[in-house]
Every structure is written in C-alpha cells, then in structure tokens.
C-alpha cells in the first residue's frame, strides 16, 4: 500500500511527500497531542502541535511483502493558528455515541477551532474567538447524547463551554471564571448512564484541581455550570488529568499527576485521595540552553489502560512514564511496576511529555518523548508488564541547519540541528510495516550557556573511513567525529570565533600538513583533511588538539582579482589517472566569483585554471557532479539562479596556461527559483540530475545537459526557508530537504505534479495557510460584566497615515530615473546599427561627460553635475538651478497634503544650503512657519554677516578649520536634533549656518545620507581642499546605489572611479536568456567604460555574429556587419571576428583583413555552450578566426562536425559559399590555409 498522501491544492499542482519527519511537539504542555478512535479499517489519526503548526499522522495496521505490522505515515501539516497552539483534542465518545472525524484546537490568538475530515485532509469547519483577556490554554471534547461538547480553560482561570454542533442552543458560548490562576489541563469525566449532566475537571498551575457540573439543557445561562469542589492536589503544575475506573465500586475516579513527581487518584464523590505514589526525581543543573526549560521539576504522563472495574484488583489501571523515561504500570494495591520491554532499541531515554491511549484499539498507546521519538506500544495477551513497541517515528527537536548523506549504500543521513545536536538517521524510506526509522543522537559540542547550532556537516568520502563526520558550528567549532565511539563533550575544541559555513574533505594543499609531530586525523598516506570556511577565509584542520591553519593568505596569492579574496565556499573533486591534475578545487567568493584550481600530480602545486564571474552576489553552495567523464560544478548564490560550470576541458589540458581563463559563460543557467539558493546536491545514481533548495520554500530537481537543461520536479509544501538538501544514497528516486522550521521531508521527484518552481520570492502553500470552510458566527455569553466579544479578525490598520509618518526626502528627484524607458531596436542606417535604450544611453553620456566630450545640453542630467564637477562654471550653475527648482517643488506642495510642515522645512533647508538667509526670513514671516531649529539657523547665519546669494561666495575657504572653538549651545542643539529627534537634515543645516559645512557633511555620511552629503559638498566645499571627504561621499553613494539597477548604479561607480564595478553592473543588467541585441547594447556600453578590455571586445563581436546569423536577408546582414565595422577600432579582436563572419556568412565579400595582436585563443574560450543553429555557426566563425591566427585547426574541426551533425543544411551552405569564393579567387591570404582544411 502506498504511503504517499497528496495534499490538496486549489490553483497549483500538488506536492507529495513520502516521508515527513516533523518538528517535535511543544514541550511541557498537558495536552500537546491527541488520537482519534481506532477505525474499522485498522487505522487512526494522531495529531500533535508544534508551536503554531499542526502535524497529523496516520497509525495503520497493514500487510506487505515484509509481513504484517503497524507503521506511522504522514497525512498532512498546516498552520492551525496565527499564534502558538496551546492544545489539541479529539472528542471522546460517551454512551457509545457515534463520533465524527473531528478534532479541536485552541491557540494564543484566542480562537477555538473545530476541524473536520474532508477529502483525505482536515479543514476548519467552525471557530469562535474569545474576548481579549480570555486566551484558551487547554481544551477537551466529548460526544454526549449526539452533541459535541467542547471544554476549554484559559490563562486567566476562565472555563469555556462550546457546543458547535448543537442546533437547539444556537451558536452560544458559555464563559465563567473559576480561579485567578493559569489553567494547565482539563478533561470531561464519563457520566452515569441515565445522567444528563457532564462533569468537567480543570487543573491549574498552582496544583489545584477544580471540578464542576455542566447541565446541557441551557447553555445561555451561567447557572448551567456549577462548581462541585476545589482541592489542592499537587504542589506544582498539573501534568495530566485522566478518568479511570480504579476500584470495584464501578465509580469513575480521577487520576492526576503533577510536577512534584506525585501520581494521585481522587474520588469524584467525596474529593478524597484514594491512592498516591511519588516517583524519585533528581535533576542536575546543566549549562545546555536546551535543557534549561526543565526548571528542576518533574513531568509525569499518564494514560488509562481501559480495564473495567470488574477486572481483578491487581490489573493495572494506569500507565505512567517517570521523569527519566521509565515505563510503569499502576494498580490500586501495589507500587508502580516497571514494564519489562522485550529486547528492542525503541525506548525513551528522557522525559515523555504525552502518553495517549488509542480509543477502541487493540490496547495501543502512543508516547511522545523529549528524545524526539514517537513510539507506539501494544499490550499483548493482557501481559501489561511486557509492553512491546510495535511502531515508531522520529521528530526534529529544533531547526534544521545542515544535512549530509553518506556515500555508502547503507550510510546514515546526518542532520545538524540548531540546538547543537546531530541526528544519524537510518532506513529513512517510505513507511512500511516492521521498518521503523532508527535514530542516533550525537552531542559533539561542549556544554555552553549560549545556543550553538551545527551549521555544516560532511561525511568522509572514502569507504574505509565512512564513520568519520566533519562538523562545523555557529560559534566556530570545527572537528571530526567518529560516530561509532562515545563523544567526549568536555575536551578542547578548535574555535574560529565565527560561524562555520562549510566543512569539506580534501587533499593536502600548500604542504601545510607536513609538520613533524602532528596528530593526523586519518592514518593513510593519501589521507584527506577537513577544510572549513569561516570569516571569509579557508581553514585547515590538522589535528583535534591543534589550532586550525589559515590558508586564506596562500589562496590570495593565486587569485587574479583582489576583490575575490573574501571567500565563501570551497569544493573538491578527485580526478582520474588520465588527467594532469589529481584534484579540482572550486573556490567561491563573497563577490560572486568562482575560481577553479588544479592540484598538480607531480609537484603537488596549485595551478589557477579559470575564473568564472557570472554571479554578482555571495556564493552559498557549490557541488561537483559525480559523472565519471565530466567535471561539472553547480554553483548557487544569493541570486535566484544556478550556474553549471563545465571544467572538463580545464582538467584535461596537458599544460597550464600562463594566465587563468576569464569566463562569463557556463554550460547552463538554471532559472526558476524566486530567492537565494541555499543547497545543492548531485544525484549519485543519474549523474545529470541536480537537486536545489532555496529560500523561496521550494526544492527542485533539474536535468542538466547541453541545450536541454530544465526542471523536472519541484516540491512546494515546505512552510519555511529550505536550509539544506541531499540525495538518497540507496534510493535513486528519493531526496531529502530540510527547512528552517524543523521539518525534514523525503519525497520522490517522479511523483511530483509540479515540474518547475513558482516564480515568487517566497512560495506559499497551495490554498490558504489555515484551510477554512464556511464559518459560523458564535454568540458569547459571560457571567461577568458584559463585554462585546471579538468575533472576527479585523485587518491590521496603521496607527498613522503613511504620508505623514514616512520621512520626507530632501531631494526626491535625484536618482529616480526609471530602470527602462525604451527598448533597443536595430537601425541599419546608423553606426552602430542600433538605437540604444535610455538606461544604457545615459551611462554612455555620463562617460562622455567625465571625459570632457561635448554632449547636447538636454541630455545632461542633474546627476551628472552632482557626481562630477566640470572644469567650467556652467555645471555649477546648473546644479544650483536644480536645487532651487527642488526647493520650489517642496514649496508648491505645501498648499495641500499632510506633509506641509515637512515640505516647508525641506524648502527652507535647501535655501539655507544656498545661503539665502534673507529669503528664508521673509518666507518664515509669510508662511507663519517658525520652528525653533530654523530660528537658531537664521541667527547663526545672519550673526555678523549678510546672506551670501552670490554663487561664487557659497564655497567656503580652502583652509579647513581643524580647531574650532567650543560652542556648547550649538553642540547641544545639534545633538538634540540628531540623537533625540533623528532630524539629520536639520542638524546639518544648523552646522551649515554656523559655517561648519565639513562637519555637516560628515554627520550626513554617518547617518547614510549619501546624496544629501554629496550635494552639500558640491554647493559649499572645495574638492581640492577636501579630497578625502569627497571620496567618502562618492564611495558611500556607490554602495547605496549598487543594487538599484541601471543607470544609477553605473553612474555612482563611475563617479567613484570604480570602472570595473560599473562595467559589471552594466553587463549584469542583461541575463543570459535575454535576446542577443540586448547583450550587444550592454557590451557596447561596457566598451565605453573599459575601452581596452579584450574580453568585452570579444563578447561584443561574438553577439554581433549571433545576431547577424539570425538575419535571413543577406543584404541586411551585410549592412549590419559593415556598420559595426565602421565604429570598431582597426586591428581589434572585434573587427577581426566581424571580418571572419563577413567572409563565412556573405556570398560576396572583399576586404582587407588586419590580424589582431591580442591572444584570441584563450579569450575565445568564454562562450555559451549550445546546440542552437546560430550558436553553432558562431562557434565556427570564432574557431575559424582562432585557427587563422594559431594554425590550430582541432577546435574548428570539432565545431564543423557539430554543425554538420545537428544542422546539415547550414553546413552544406557554408561549404558551397567557400567553394564559390575559391573559384572566384576571392579568399584573402590570411584565410587561405584554413579554408583548404575546411573544404577537406
């Protein structure tokens, strides 16, 4: 029988989970779990709460190939309340009344909800919301005379009775306050056969127990609920309240357990204790934050055995777990007896928080332990002293932060948790009878007062050492754990004082381990070592009792770009004997670059191979494929896409190149996720499949191939961000994904309906988070002072209007250029033959503006004058005019709107920055706007001098005052505006009025106001006198605008002198899937920024050839190539490649070929692999150009063979064109030799 249960969806394909290991139930709750009655088909539902989430599992008895037996399978999970769930309960049937498949929950959001089974899942049928001071903390339900009665008790001592299905009483609710204490547990007691009155019991945090009667005749009257007795049953919280028939008198008794370690039995007739026993309990103090919640109090869980009063007195009536996880039976005569479970590894090793008796079952019981286990027990042949575990399930005790699957077929799955533990899971497969998941818990970290999470895991790849597991923690611990040996938690650890983001096994590098006297982790000569990524560097673990070796400085000497030195990830791939290198090393940087290195076999030296710069954000995950013949590296970053780098050619080259190859293309780009990529893993069974996890709450399986890469399966039922993923080592069609909330999911890619991830930054589950049916309103009846109940959840309303609460920008018109206002189109009469869209043309204009090249005045933007001061005074006049216009815009907006005061402040501040104190004084009188800070500013500016309205007089002197006399009044007012009111612009205006503009600029910089600081600098300070301050303004502005897109990011980088970053921002504005014309525009713009960059020059010609190949009319193709050649430098790579393209793609062509001086062969490796016709033809053109320069025809022959195989018609046309040119003797001398090779 298949255990996969589909979660229904409304508008999106469903995701199916085969195995779900949930977050464990909420600790120290009296009713955290519930169980439905055993059905005729041999199953029941188990529901338990985990904070605001509810997990529902099915306990089944089935027969399979492995035999017959019980097993637990996942049914569904959902968010039951907007806040934490406090209790869950299935109704208990009294007088053999039929019970519908429903359950009740209550939560901190003040709701009590009724959930009904419908179409293989549970949906909310009815709900009621209590008033604000009544928060239900526990609940119980029963079916009495065909009526569903819900009992709830609150944090303030209120008792709530609700009959959601009783039509005679309407939709009423009874609320009555019994105690001024927090209720912890409640239950309904079984009534007499002829009784119409229910007995309810509520337990409180103080240890008191209160019993009351409820008359079902009239719920609208508070007289229906009468208190029977109150007793002080325990010294601490009530853990369990269980109705039980204990003696032969046939009377129902109440069994209670408290955190004082006592179990007691009370008579419901005289409220006297009939039985008592105390379990021994001693809790030692611990520094582990995960154990601090025990509070040195016991927790005892109880369940009734269901034995009737006619059974012998020695028959156990209660089952109990002591505070250490011991299982006991309790009768009315003797002390509790410890159950002698048969030899089995399934048992609890610590506190059990809930023990459930499955109603109407063959004596089945379910226990939930602190050790993250759910165990099902069965009493066979009435032998209560040898309860046998028949099924079990594993839970996660905290958030999942890392996953690692061993390489062997039987290797365990290691799961790192945020509490500092590692779970080793075996047999994690779709549930079946007699095949439980086994779990081993490791605590490899030392005790600490702070929470320490396991953030990185890696199994040793050698089967000889498959028991070694490398770990890294959030506090910098790095170690190797032998999972077959006991862990010594008190020993010394290697600390890096930072979060460890990755641990991997790799070979010896830089001869760093050849130190005498070192204790090596493994003993073989070809041993592997543990490398860790922490604090932007790579560290090597040589010994468990020696400090880690920092290899960051050694890698830095091998990097060709200084911006790559801050490292984020590392990955190793062992090569075969046929390769020059023994290992490939992938090194990811924070800036998004990936550097590939080879470990030489002979000299054991590290050789730089290539640098791939596609990602522009931090690298999060890298994984090498397990393909025997291909060396593919999957790379994920903070971008929502994955790149596949093919390093096969680099690994197989016989001699290393002089300089590493610079690449901006890859084998494939996997696009579809909506947020950053956090985990990658290749399939060990099908080497073309890669698994990815993302912060968009989805996981996807991709099939990677040349020109055929695409998603094939996507799992969308995670509730939170995915932190880790792994492929099963023994099941080809089974993967694992772990999310932040603590759910570990195993799913079959072939069973998923969705193929691709949804295009959203954070995917929400199909349908609402709280599945709702049609809701009924509930009327509430209180016995206290009437108070209007809250019946519905109203939408959140802002306390203030957005227009009045949001800080007003002083310069709203600066850097607000739309990202795209037009489209690039081809214009064959132009040179170059394109009309560039505005966001790129603005960048080109600014480059010309910086270089002093004249451009039309109407194309000079205010940002140009702000970012770059021209030598003439015209630019300064334009900037001042712009500031005046900005001030007038603020003033014109004061006639209406809620921001009048802020608009006037902005208007007057800009005038003071311009030195117009007299105008400000007149405006204050006219507008009747005279705030205190403005009066101080006017006094400071007018004291001793008149306003300076002349443009030339605005700039303060070149000599900067370093020693300024103390001015306590000014300092006090500036600090008041800055720190108390957060009015940085006003504080800066005060400093400007006092003649301290440099301090005002520094104040604005310290608060991140980059454009205001730069404007103030341009207006009042001299660049020659303050060069450092100007650079600070430009660099801060560049960082602020770096993620705003074109043209703003490129303009800021250019002004700060960061030309490489400016070119990168221009090129990153176009994705790999965009049409060739967009790439041409981007590269043409980049060539203005970096005119001598050979890679940009090559890529520009490359995409021009692709676009020309797509043209079907030869005259247009000819005109396109001619117009491009007219604007390219003579002797450049781009001009040479366009000549090669014209020669191969045009029937008639004549011209002079100038060979470039640059090395084209190495640059030409940066091409997009594809089997598309245009790319195949372009590759022939490029390889033709390389062959003419180097006489190396092997790449050209390979390209021609690919073209002939996949596009034979185009191949034939190309050969016919060359034959015709040979007959006409129109082949240039430089092309003659290679053309002969092609024709052969």
TrEMBL record:
Superkingdom classification of source: Eukaryota
GO molecular function terms listed in the Swiss-Prot or TrEMBL record: mRNA 3'-UTR binding
Cellular component annotations (GO), alphabetically ordered: nucleus; SMN complex
InterPro entries: Gemin-5, WD40/YVTN_repeat-like_dom_sf, WD40_repeat_dom_sf, WD40_rpt
Pfam families named in the record: WD40
UniProt KW keywords: WD repeat
Spans of repeat WD: 78-125, 670-704
GO terms (BP aspect): spliceosomal snRNP assembly
Record field: transmembrane: none
Protein name: SUN domain-containing protein
